[in-house]
Amino acid sequence: MSDCLFCKIIDGSIPSTKIYEDDHVYAFTDISPVAKGHTLLIPKQHCQDLFEMPEEVARNLYAAAPKIANAIKAAFQPIGLNTINNNGAAAGQTVFHYHLHFIPRYDEKEGLGLIWPTQTYSSEQLVEVAESIKAHL
Ligand code: AMP
Ligand code: ZN
């Protein structure tokens, strides 16, 4: 897509700090890292988000994910790592070319402060939710 920032990074018209590339994916450092080693993995085929992603693109993208995670682990010895993908502005997406964040964790004071509030559902409610989703598969 001609007006897509990450397509321009893939074609080299906007500079990036490349970490990895194959026929299907491109990985580079996030320009505003949350923590040392914060990396973005993107498909070369433009798709806006996970909702639009063809299965083949997903297969090729995730095939590269362990390689990226293990390289970050070997380079910086984080004590953990989050992979995060924001879909839609309401979910925090700001660049509308799918990207998977790799965010290493070092200690509670550095990097991502993940607030993950939970709700309490009965087993009946969980079944109802599961059935609603299953109806669309
Ligand atoms: P999201 O909020 O999930 O859409 O993430 C977009 C990410 O892209 C942010 O973490 C930005 O720091 C990052 N970003 C934006 N522009 C660039 C760029 N030119 N090079 C590398 N990373 C970028
Ligand atoms: Zn794009």
Treating each run of at least 4 consecutive H or I residues as one helix, how many helices?
A: 3
DSSP strand content: 15-25%
Question: Distance between termini?
Answer: 29 Å
| Shape, principal axes of CA atoms | globular
GO molecular function: catalytic activity
Active site: 99 (tele-amp-histidine intermediate)
GO biological process, one term: nucleotide metabolic process
Motif (Histidine triad motif): 97-101
Task: Explain what the structure shows.
It contains 3 helices and 5 strands, in the order αβββαββα. It is globular. A hairpin with a 3-residue loop joins strand 1 (18-21) and strand 2. With 137 residues, it is an alpha+beta fold. It is 30% helix and 18% strand. The chain has helices at residues 5-11, 55-76, 123-134, and strands at residues 18-21, 25-29, 39-43, 80-84, 100-105. It has a 5-stranded antiparallel sheet, with helices on one face. It has one domain: HIT family, subunit A.
Give me some keywords for this one.
137 residues, Histidine_triad_CS, HINT, alpha+beta, 5 strands, 30% helix, HIT family, subunit A, Protein hit, globular, 5-stranded antiparallel sheet, single chain, binds adenosine monophosphate, binds zinc ion, catalytic activity, Histidine_triad_HIT
Short summary of the structure?
A motif (Histidine triad motif) lies at residues 97-101. This protein has 137 residues and is an alpha+beta fold.
What order do the helices and strands come in, and which of them pair?
Blueprint (H helix, E strand, L loop, with lengths): L4 H7 L6 E4 L3 E5 L9 E5 L11 H22 L3 E5 L15 E6 L17 H12 L3
Antiparallel strand pairs: 1-2, 2-3, 3-5, 4-5
The chain binds adenosine monophosphate (AMP) and zinc ion.
